[in-house]
Each structure stands twice: as structure tokens, then as C-alpha cells.
Structure to design on (220 residues):
């Protein structure tokens, strides 16, 4: 194993950690209401499956870039997932309803695959088509993502207000994906102020929609 190979693997690991904060938030929100044992298993399983899917998607990165409406559809999907996760976590209730284990894992995998466009492109460039290098770099990231997600979930238990911030972050990501889609950019030519405004609206909209959803389905 050459020094270049190791350095490239560490580069992929660093990229995944720097760009994967949103994914850790998704995992933490998805497993927050699960029992402790299921939370640990769900976090590890969700992170592992998400990384495997990300490896597969990396080989289609160029095609994904050329595909129209991918970012737009992905952004809308992220907004919907964010609302669902916020409603499930429901910070206004001390004991929110427990979601299904496999439902939580499914949301983790779908959200990670949807939000990982920037990760995929950066990792594809760093790996230069080397599958072993790709697996090494992303494989090393699993325990760190699991640790971060577990820590976030426990902080959410202690400080429920973090759930609001987590949902808002996912809303901002969804808004950013929508406004950076090639079709939207070509049709609207949005300014930076416009993009930031849409991201802010999506962030606050997710929290409001999640709160109303929770009140409707989990009345106190």
C-alpha cells in the first residue's frame, strides 16, 4: 500500500467528513425516538448502507451532473423527508411516538443518497476511479459518522431545541438543491440574495410544516 494510496484515502475521508454534516443530522433525527439498542443498530446500519450506496452512485457522478431536474427533484424530496423527521422527533413531546426501525433506516439511506451530490463529485475526483481507494476512504468514515450521529441524537434528547436547528439545516439543504438545479438556474438566473432567501424560507418552512404535522398526528 503506497503512501499516495493512503493519502488519497485520507483525502476521501476528510471530504466525506467535511461535507457529511447534513447526513449526520439526518441520522440523528431519524433514530432519536428509537429505543437505545435500536438507535445504535439503526445508526450503524443506516450509515453503512448509505456509504455503500454512495460508492455505487460515485461511478455515475458524471451522468448525474448532466441530468436535468435531478437537483430539483432531490431538493423537494429532502424537504419532505425533513418535515417527516421533524414530526417524528417532535421536540414538543417528552416521549414522542416511536417510529418503525426499518422506516428510520430507509429514511436515512434515501436522504443520504439524495443529499450527497457534492460528496459524490468530490469523492469521484479524489478516487480517480479506484474502487479500493473509494471503499477505504468511505469505509473509514462510517465509525466517525456513527459517533457524530449518536452524539447529536443524545444532545437532542437533552436539548430538544437542537431538533429545530437540525430540521432547519435540512430545509436549507433542500432549498439549495432546488435553486442550483440546472433548469432552475437557466430559467430564473437567481441572484445570490434570491438563493439565500429561498433557503431561509425552506428552512423555516420545514420547521413550521413539521410542527403542524406533529400537532395533527400526535396531539398532546
Amino acid at each position: 500500500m503506497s503512501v499516495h494510496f493512503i493519502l488519497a484515502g485520507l483525502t476521501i475521508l476528510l471530504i466525506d467528513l467535511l461535507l457529511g454534516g447534513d447526513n449526520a443530522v439526518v441520522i440523528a433525527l431519524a433514530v432519536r425516538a428509537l429505543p437505545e439498542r435500536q438507535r445504535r443498530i439503526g445508526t450503524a446500519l443506516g450509515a453503512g448502507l448509505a456509504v455503500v450506496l454512495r460508492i455505487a452512485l460515485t461511478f455515475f457522478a458524471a451522468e448525474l451532473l448532466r441530468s436535468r431536474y435531478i437537483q430539483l427533484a432531490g431538493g423537494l424530496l429532502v424537504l419532505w423527508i425533513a418535515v417527516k423527521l421533524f414530526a417524528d422527533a417532535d421536540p414538543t413531546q417528552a416521549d414522542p411516538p416511536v417510529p418503525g426501525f426499518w422506516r428510520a433506516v430507509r429514511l436515512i439511506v434515501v436522504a443520504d443518497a439524495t443529499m450527497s451530490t457534492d460528496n459524490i463529485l468530490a469523492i469521484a475526483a479524489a478516487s480517480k476511479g479506484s474502487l479500493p481507494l473509494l471503499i477505504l476512504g468511505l469505509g473509514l468514515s462510517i465509525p466517525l459518522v456513527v459517533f457524530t450521529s449518536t452524539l447529536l441524537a443524545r444532545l437532542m434528547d437533552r436539548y430538544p431545541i437542537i431538533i429545530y436547528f437540525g430540521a432547519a439545516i435540512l430545509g436549507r439543504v433542500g432549498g439549495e438543491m432546488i435553486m442550483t438545479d440546472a433548469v432552475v438556474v437557466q430559467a430564473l438566473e437567481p441572484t445570490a440574495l434570491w438563493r439565500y432567501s429561498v433557503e431561509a424560507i425552506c428552512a423555516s418552512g420545514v420547521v413550521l410544516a413539521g410542527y403542524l404535522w406533529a400537532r395533527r398526528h400526535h396531539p398532546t
In short: The chain has eleven helices and no strands. The chain has one domain: 3-217. Residues 64 and 84 are 26 Å apart (CA to CA). The two ends are 58 Å apart (CA to CA).
